[in-house]
Amino acid sequence: QVQLVESGGGSVQTGGSLRISCVASGGTLRNGAVGWFRQTAGKDREFIAALKWNGGATAYTDSLKGRFTISRDIAKNTVYLQMNSLQPEDTAVYYCAVGFRIITSTMSSSSHYDYWGQGTQVTVSS
Fold this sequence. Notes:
By secondary structure, the protein is mostly beta strands. The protein has strands at residues 3-7, 10-13, 18-25, 33-39, 46-52, 58-60, 68-73, 78-83, 92-99, 115-116, 120-125. It has no helices and eleven strands.
């Protein structure tokens, strides 16, 4: 069973940047996909980006493409989310997730992910 731990969240001012990390343990990510989602109180979990471990293909939600970048370090079993030009509306809890039944068309679907981290808070102040 894969365990995921996010880190790197915190408080930043408008226009700033953060890089959050997701470290996987307890199993291989081979043949899986890792996704980043975020959630604010009272709202559904929102897809941000995902990456297929084999080959590194990525997918982004259109509204964040260009500001947010997903990447990985295979040796460290870690996936990153680089977030630039942060705005107050980016304030949320950010989650990473791993799925092993994911195809390209389902990379943005939270219901297709099998394991989730505990989340890391990102707060952007104006």
